[in-house]
Design goal:
Its cofactor is heme. InterPro entries: Cyt_P450, Cyt_P450_E_grp-I, Cyt_P450_sf, Cytochrome_P450_monoxygenase. Belongs to the cytochrome P450 family. By secondary structure, the protein is α+β, with helices and mostly antiparallel strands. The chain has a single domain, classed as Orthogonal Bundle (Cytochrome p450), CATH 1.10.630.10. 51% of the residues lie in helices and 8% in strands. The strands form four sheets. It has a five-stranded mixed sheet with strand order 1-2-8-5-3. Strands 4-12-9 form a three-stranded antiparallel sheet. Strands 6-7 form a two-stranded antiparallel ribbon. Helix 6 packs across helix 13 and helix 13 packs antiparallel against helix 14.
Length: 486
């Protein structure tokens, strides 16, 4: 016992007074152990904690023994932009022994592996996907119409829609959740798995420990259930074979699997393929679901913007994705939604500085330091009196003002702060498809319905119950969709 006390005592003294980060401000207990941070965010509210710490300690906060959180518009480009010198943190080993171009720490593998993702989202591929997304959007409208004037649980219907779209685009297989109005067990497994990982994202070794020691624990079972679902769907897709009339993303990943035959063992290629499928399932369903829930919330909260979109789209073919992409208020509404509620990486993803360190806003960050940039906080930057000499990136940052993106550019002082899909070589390859879904669903629903909050629903619920669990998990949203005369 004495030896352990001496060991932990010396570690504490070193981390507080002699560590390379000892001069950076932050909570003292955070400097001693990362478990302090895990405990503080045990209810999955890391985005709120980091915003609070930003107000107390400034733009550079020591949030772990060897970790700094950077809050400033330039942070995203430094961590992920072209020419960045950072590498990915151990968090990206989460899927081990499976892995993917997204969930890996090898720069070369990431660069080469992204090609299949990029190719699966080219103009040719998207032209094949758009009509199928449109058909599912109309199924979503029919599903909502079946509720009549009864309140609709927006979380449920958007979960069904996003999962159906993911299945169709990724595997060429519509899961028919909208038509059956049932929650697939895979969705519950996904949500349970993310709930496990969310609070311990900054100490991911705890997740690996749970996988090893308590496989019977319910959230671990959810993780294993999600993995099995992805593997089963992939196996079914392989058995069906390619359908040239209904192309899907899986074919690009299967082609990649074949092309790696000479450079990887079969086992490694199989682990890589299943890791890719898991990544695509979560990224392709959960982030869009969160963004669509927020879209409905903002449409109900701000009917004046809903009316502007209706006027803008009145004489437009709602299934013309190219035209929808050119409409200023519609697109600005979506940008403002994503700014206030980024669906992925609300508190950033961890990077490690290179051997030369990094310069952030006139401050030198030492080499081999874990750094994060909280997307939620940076896209809501407020002026700080002690350490920031300029105004926030977005004046009136907590207000919903779509016009800032086209007719009031003075309300965007630093566009670098807006990165809902990251930037540079690490930017989300599904960005184009996500925007297309959001535009089409918003246009279609506004064309057919007046969207209002349910009478007994508290609009603050979405924000009050928001969880930061790798992806954003909005609180419940209950709306009434009143049919409009066509």
């Amino acid at each position: 016992m004495a030896c352990l006390m001496a060991l932990f005592g010396s570690m504490t003294v070193y981390r507080l007074f002699f560590h390379k980060l000892s001069g950076f401000p932050g909570p003292k207990l955070a400097a001693v152990t990362k478990l302090w941070h895990v405990w503080k965010i045990r209810k999955s509210t890391n985005y709120l904690l980091l915003q609070e710490l930003n107000g107390e300690y400034g733009d550079i906060i020591r949030t772990g023994p060897n970790e700094l959180t950077l809050v400033g518009p330039s942070a995203f480009n430094l961590l992920d932009g072209w020419g960045n010198t950072t590498t990915r943190d151990i968090w990206y080993d989460l899927l081990r022994p499976r892995y993917s171009a997204v969930f890996c720490r090898d720069k070369k593998l990431h660069k080469e592996g992204r090609k299949a993702w990029v190719n699966s989202m080219t103009g040719k591929a998207m032209n094949a996907f758009y009509p199928r997304v449109a058909a599912l959007s109309h199924s979503l409208s029919s599903c909502i119409r079946s509720h009549g004037t009864r309140p609709v649980d927006v979380d449920d219907v958007m979960s069904w829609f996003s999962f159906d779209v993911m299945g169709d685009v990724l595997f060429g297989e519509d899961f028919n959740l909208l038509s059956s109005q049932t929650m697939d067990p895979a969705i519950k497994h996904r949500d349970g798995a993310l709930a496990l990982v969310g609070p311990i994202s900054d100490a991911i070794w705890l997740a690996h420990l749970a996988f090893l020691l308590v496989p019977f624990y319910s959230p671990v079972q959810d993780w294993l259930g999600m993995v099995k679902f992805c593997e089963d769907r992939l196996a079914a897709r392989i058995q069906r074979g390619e359908n040239e009339k209904k192309p899907d993303m899986a074919q690009y990943f299967l082609n990649e699997h074949q092309s790696l035959e000479g450079s990887m063992s079969l086992r490694d290629r199989d682990l890589y393929l299943t890791g890719t499928a898991i990544t695509a399932v979560v990224a392709g369903s959960d982030t869009t679901r969160a963004a669509l829930i927020a879209t409905c919330w903002f449409l109900a909260r701000y009917p004046e913007h809903a009316n502007k979109i209706r006027a803008e789209t009145r004489d437009v073919d709602g299934d013309d994705f190219a035209t929808l992409a050119s409409l200023p208020h519609l697109n600005s509404f979506i940008n403002e939604t994503l700014r206030l509620m980024p669906p992925a990486g609300m508190t950033g993803t961890a990077r490690i500085t290179g051997p030369q360190g990094m310069q952030f806003e006139n401050t030198y960050i030492p080499p081999f330091t874990k750094v994060t940039a909280p997307r939620y906080g940076i896209m809501r930057l407020k002026m700080l009196t002690l350490c920031r000499a300029v105004e926030s990136a977005f004046p009136r940052p907590d207000e919903f003002i779509p016009e800032r993106w086209y007719s009031q550019p003075e309300l965007v002082l630093d566009r670098r702060a807006f990165t809902p899909f990251s930037v540079g070589p690490r930017q989300c390859t599904g960005k184009t498809l996500a925007y297309a879904e959001l535009r089409h669903v918003a246009t279609l629903l506004l064309r057919h319905y007046d969207i209002e909050f349910a009478d007994d629903y508290d609009p603050d619920t979405m924000w009050r119950d928001m969880k930061d669990q790798v992806t954003a998990q909005p609180g419940k949203v209950m709306c009434v969709f009143k049919p409009r005369e066509q």
